[in-house]
Every structure is written in C-alpha cells, then in structure tokens.
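not sure who needs this but someone in the group chat was asking about Calcium-transporting ATPase from Rhodamnia argentea so here u go. i didnt clean anything up, its just raw.
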Amino acid sequence: MTSILRGDFVRYEVSLDLPAVRKFAKQWRLAFATIYSYRAITMSAKKTRKFPRKCPSYTSISIPDRAWRARSDHPGSFFHIDQSQLTKLVKDKDLGHLREFGGVGKVASTLETDVLARIRGDPDDVSRRQDAFGVNSYKKPPAKGFFHFVFEAFKDLTIMILLVCAGLSLGFGIKENGVKEGWYDGGSIFVAVFLVIAVSAVNNYRENRQFEKLSRVSGNILIDVIRMGRRQRVSMFEVVVGDVICLKIGDQVPADGLFSNGHSLRVDESSMTGESDHVEVNGDENPFLFSGTKVADGYAQMLVTSVGMNTTWGEMMSTISRDNSEQTPLQARLNKLTSSIGKVGLAVAFLVLVVLLIRYFTGNTQDENGNREYVAGQTTGDDIMNSVVGIIAAAVTIVVVAIPEGLPLAVTLTLAYSMKRMMADQAMVRKLSACETMGSATTICTDKTGTLTMNQMKVTKFWVGQDSLAEKAYSSASKYVLDLIQDGVALNTTGSVYRPSSGSEYEFSGSPTEKAILSWAVSQLTMDMEEIKKGCEVIRVEAFNSQKKRSGVLTKKSVDDTFHVHRKGAAEMVLAMCSSFYDGSGIEKDLDGDERMRFEQIIQGMAASSLRCIAFAHKQVSEEAIKEREDGKKIQEDSLTLLGLVGIKDPCRPGVKSAVQACQDAGVNIKMITGDNIFTAKAIAAECGILRPGDDAFNGAVVEGAEFRNYTPEERLRRVEKIQVMARSSPFDKLLMVQCLKQKGHVVAVTGDGTNDAPALKEADIGLSMGIQGTEVAKESSDIVILDDNFTSVVTVLRWGRCVYNNIQKFIQFQLTVNVAALVINFVAAVSSGDVPLTAVQLLWVNLIMDTLGALALATERPTRELMEKPPVGRTKPLITNIMWRNLVAQATYQMAVLLTLQFKGESIFGVDEAVKRTLIFNAFVLCQVFNEFNARKLEKKNVFEGVHKNKLFLGIIFATVVLQVVMVEFLKRFANTERLSWGQWGACVGIAAMAWPIGWVVKCIPVPDTPILSYLGLKSRKLWRKIVRGEQ
C-alpha cells in the first residue's frame, strides 16, 4: 500500500489489488463511512485546516474534500487550474500551449462547464466561481471625497482675498477692542465665507455623486449566457469564469475567453491594439477573445476564462475614471458672460476702492461718533490699517457680488437635476451637452422598428407559392415544402428555443423578428429545433446585417450527406435571388416575369397592410459546386427556389401619433428612416402621422435609400428638407441625410440601434441609441440612451432639453438684476458719500441667496406645456433675449431708484438713525430679490404663480430665505451689522419689495422687437466706423 499527497488536493490515494478489495468490501465500506463522517465533523467544527495525521490503523482511499477546498485559502484549487494559467493562456495568444492543454473542450471540462447544459448558474455555483476567479468588475480610482470639493472652493481667488481681509480685520479688531468685542467684524466675514464655501462644496459633491451613479448604470450591460441549458440575460457584473456567452454583431465582449463555436466571427480590437482592421476569430487558428473588444460580424459562443481585474481590459480600466468635468457649449458661453461681467465688477470695485481711500486719507470720512476717521499725524497705525482693511474688504465684496459665480452652478444644477429626472423618464444621458443641445433640435430622424412600433412581432400571414394559408389550414400545403421551411427556420437563425420540461411553455430568444418566426414555426409548423439541428451539420454561415438585409446558411444532412443552402431575409431581396418557386402542392415551377410580378404584388399587398415581409428560399447543391465557388466561403446567392413568404405584424406604439404631433407643433420635423420596403414604410408613417394626406414619392416626401444615394450633392441638398420617409435605407444613407441636414443649418437628432448606425449617431448633433435593441457599439456612439426604445421618450428628451435652456435663462435674468442693482447702488453711494450702504457680510449673504439658493430654486423647474408651443432655439440666437433685457432693466431700475432714495433720504423719510437706515436698505434689497424670484419663473407669461404649488423645492427655498433674513436682521445684530426693525418698518420693506410683482406684470405688456438689441448696437458701431474710415479717406 502506498499513500500519496497530490498537488492542490487534500486526498489520499491507495493502490490495492482487486481480489483483496472484493474480499473485504464490507469492511472497506465501514471504513469509508467512518473516515468520511469523522472528517466532516472535524471540518464543520473548523478545529483545524491541517491535513489529518495518518495512523497505521487505517489507510485512506481517494475522497476529494470539497468542503475544505471551498474554504481554502487557494480557492481556485477546486477547478484543477488556477487563474494565472487561464490568464496566460488567453493573454499570450499561445495556440500551441492551448493544444497541449487539450483545447477549448479540455479547458471547459476543467472549469466544470458542461458541453450542453453549460454551468449550473445557481447562487452557490456563481459564488463559488467568484471566490475562485474573482468578480467581473474593475477597480476604479477612489471617488472624490467631500473635502476635495471644500479645498477646490478655497482656491477661488476672491474667496482667498476675502479670507485674508477677514484675518486682518479680526486681528486689528481684537487688538483695538479686545477679544470680547473685537472679533465681530472679522469673525462675521469668516463665517459668511465658510458658509458660501460649504454650500458650494455640498452642491459640487452631490453633482459628482450623481455622475458616479450614472456611470455605474451606463456600465451595467446585459449579456446573453447559457446556464443549465437555458439562454438567459444577466448583468455583465454577474458573468463568471466558466460561463458560455452568446455574442452577436454589435456586442461588446465582457470578459476574456475562448471561441467555443460559431460562424463568421470578426472582432474589432481597435480599443486594445489601435488597429482598425477586423480580426477573424475561429476555433482553428485564433480562438482568443478579449474583454472590451466589439463583434463586427458573425456570431459565436465564448467560454469565459478571465473576468474583471484578471483581464487585459480590466488592467487598463483600473487607471481610468469617467471624466465628469466635461464643459458643455452652454457652460462655455456662460463662462464668457461671467468673465465679461466680472471685468465690469472689477473695474467698479477698483473705482470704489480708489474713491474710498482718497476720501479716507483726505479726512472726508467720519466714524460712528461723528469724528473724522483720519487726522494726519494723530491717527495711529493700527487705526489706519483697520480702516484700510475694511475698505479693501468692501471693495472685494463688491467683486464677489458682481461676479455671477452662480451661472456655472446653475447650469450644473439644472443639468444634474434634468439628468436625474430624464433617467426616471426612460432616458439615460451619456454626454451632458446633449441635454441642452436637444432643446435646439429642429429635425429628428427616427427608426421605425421598436421606436415608432412596439417591437412585439407576430406572424399573421403565410404564403406557400401564391396561396395564402390560414392558421388552421397548413395541412393543405406540401409536407416537403413545410419541412424545408422548418429546416430554414431552425438552421438559419441566431435565436434559440428552450423548453424546461415537456408540459411547460416554450421560451424564445433572439431579435424580435427571429423570435416571431421561431414562435410561429414551433406553434404552427410543430418544428422540433433540437431534432433538426441533430440531423444537420452547419458548414458555413452568413450572418444577417442591415446592409445585406438577408442571412444564409450552408448545411450538410447526416442522413444522405447532401448539401443544402437556406436563405432568409427581406422578401424582395430574396425574391431577386430566386429562379423558381414551389407551389402549394410542392411542385417546382419557373419564376418567369409574370410569376415574379404576382409575387411582387403579394409582397406589396402585405407591406401596404403594415406587415414586414420575410421570404425563405432553398437550393440543394453538390459538393463540387461548393468547391468551385470563389474563395470557398461564399454561400450561393442565385438560382434559388422560393419556399414561402411570411408577413409579420408590428403594431404602432400607443401614443406615438400624439408624440409626433407634439414635435410638429413645436416646429420639429420628424423623418422616418427604415430598412423596410417603401410600402410598409408609407403605411406605418401614415399611421403615425409623419406622412400627411397627399404626401408620396411624387412630391418628394417618400424616397428609397438607393435613389437618395444616387442624387447629386446639389440635388440632395435641394430635396432633403422635403423628405419625410426614407425606405430600404442603409446606414450610409442615414449618415448622408444627417450631413445634408446639418449643411442646411438644422440641429439634427438621430435614433439608431445597430452597429452600422454608429457613424450617423456620431455625426448627428444628438445621437439617441436604443436601450433594449441597441448594440453596445451604438450606445457608445450615442449621447443619450432611450431605455424603453419608445419615441415618446424621445419627445420627453426634447421637452427636457428646452426646459434646461429655459431654466438657465430664468436664472440669468434673476442674477443679472441683482448684479446691476448691487453694483450701481454701491458705486453711486461710495462716490457721492464715501460710504458703502451694504457691508461685506451683507453682500456675502446676498451672494449666497443669489448664487446658490436662487440657482437651486430656478434650475429645478419642470417642463411646462408652453415650452412645446414655441419654435426651436437656433444655434446662434443670443442667450439673453430682448424679453429678458426688458424684464431685467425694469426690475433693476426700480431697485436702484428705491434703494438710492433710502440711502440719501431714508433717515428723514422714516425718522431713523444711520444704523436703522442701513438695515432698511439691506432688508429691502434682499426682499426685492425674493419677490423678483417669482417674476423670474416666467419670462413671458404674466401669471408668474402658475404651477408654483407643484414645485415644493422652490417654495421651500423661498421660505428658508425669508426665515434666515428675519434671523439676520432681528437676532444677528453684531454678526450682520444690523438693527432690529419695528413691524411698521418690516411692512415698509415688504411693500417696497412687493412692487416687483405689479411692475413685472406691466412691463410684460410692452412689446419687444424680434431682432436682438445688441445687434442694433453692433450695426450702429459698424456704420460709425465706416463713416470714420470714409472721412479719413
């Protein structure tokens, strides 16, 4: 007897001669039971993880201890192969090493992947594989924490200057008045600055978290896998080593693995290698597949060997984080506007600084007791420094108020809010700029299938020869022809049929068209897909794609070793490949001109009933004919025999007609671009309201892709705006249309779901991919993913795009009103009286209301009905419209007039002292902004309260602002430099502020010209320049 300890396994092996085993069989069984029970008890108690000590009283036989292995520190040991071997096998593309190992089949058996059922896929199995080989997710750089954004806020130049001023003010104040009284001025500036920093950091942190969340959602791709013999969809993150993944055109490979079976598979490895040429993958020469690459053609099943960080793609992705600092076009425009206003603010602040310093050093300023603040030779250095610091703080605070820092914040908030709401409305934004660009869209080019229709397909018509067969009358057709159709359906498909048990329902997978045909063949033709596949060997496959609009398969029957070609695809395409047809009796007839015309009429009749027409064709070929064909890979495309036609119904989505009408009312033109034939396209377009009565090919509203393609460039540009429907189009035709529309000045949105739609999606101003039917290539090329593939969701995106633009315009009007009023009031008061009526702390509080709370209140307004009653906003239209200038100037003028009156005559009007007058000015100014915030909700409508009860956040912010203002005035006397006001004085402030509402109503009655005001100024300046130039000449 010998005892052996092998490699990764806890087992003991013994060599025994068979007679001895038979003789003592009962004793051996007893020993087996004793040993197994003993080890199970010791292992479950976890007393030790060491090997049991061998005793001379017994000899162990081979018992793999699975429980120990599952808990072992070497989890991969259970699978007889470790992760490093698997990774090296694929990464090095070492075909020789793979063959030495025993090929893909040996790797599969080592990973306990069954040939037919694949892996079990239950939670325990998945967990065991994840423990052994890791999970399919990538390590990412740590997300930015809250204090990162606090630190970023500190970097702002004006904040840094204010902090320096606050520090100096605090120091001099304490030195002059002691700690108890001297900390107020500097301390209050510190508190106000920290409050601004905290609010800014919180907003930026929340925005970053929102983007991280969206990033996780967009990365959660659904993958087709086979588990327990059943094809099912799981999250990419749930894929484990040993899984068998089904790949088709447009899919992203989610893990590293080996080609198991499939046909015509070509992979785009440009993301890994940078090479644009597609790589052929097969079982003989190159079975290696890599995570992150994309399927360009064909289909296959892949055995997963590495996931997550063990893949090459995982190593790359771990160093990459999604950049959410993308600047949208609107943000760029606002940054320019902010910069321009900031320059004006700096100029005003500098003038105020110079005036105040001159007045101070010339002895024209007085302290609170009426004494001159500066007397040459008498005023101490500390007093001079304290006064100068106060003057600098006032000037810097004017800059803070003048620079509209809230504009970029408003864009960020409204985009983040709209992205969150759009996600709930079935639209996932991948690029921020698409939110705002969609508001300017003038044309939407949409697909038909799944977007305008429900993508719930069902075969409703069946023709054999020229005979239409009712559902219950299929027995009247030739059995031979029906059998050939079954062969064509079962073998020429990328779909599958699964039935858990004999009494259960069938489950179909594949594209909607494939599922409809498979379901029909199983239920109506009683097709047994497994039996048909067992009796045939697939030699070659030509996968379906949107350009060829057909697929083909070459098979060999095992019964008689005959070769057969099966074709399936768009009816007129397949008909063109046929030279004969079978009639209902199974007799083959020539397809002459008259017969061909009859079939064309049948196809047109079905198409006019909104049916998608699919044809089946067949031909038996000789082995010699196969060998003679060029390159040996092409499947026969001519002299086929037509087997039959099916008509598939795909009903229009409910609500799509009203959605199309809403777009047309909003000045957005809808164009349908489809691969279906012209009759189906016209029927669906008329049903959806895209085509109006009288629109047809004669007036240029309907065109086929080939015809459009063959136009001259000039002719295309001339006709493109009239086209409403393009049928039998290729992805290249869609790209051509987008380019033509953009040349004509349109802002174009395009929907797409296929790999070949990627160029058009990238070329368009807004690319909209489909979340259900869309390939990963299409999604990556798009700006927004429509999660439910519904055209109604496209209209929702359009509405939100307009809402984003409109909300930002509201905030600009609100903010600029405050900017203009605050600047003018401080400047006039400083120049005339040498005093700034609003202190640094008060101006910082106004800045907080204006920048942060105002942005939050106005940026979260939801879309309204009237947004879809206006024409689209053009690319070149000014951000600040004439309507906004009218509203802004009226409110700012009123505020300046009232507050300057209070500055110069407030003491006599109210009979109060200087301190109370300053508080009245501050209180009236803040309340004016609160009331004006309501005006800003509606740029044109007079009723500014419409729908306000629905925006709880807006009402909450208004309430919070008023409460905080009361606290500032009544309870924070030393902090805010205010005095308590009487009820009468509060009433006066509210009355002054409330006048903003009637003024806003009256102003909106004043008509404004359509031509932008600034263009008039530009025109006059150009004329003046011409006069000067001519005068010099």
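also The radius of gyration is 38 Å. if thats useful
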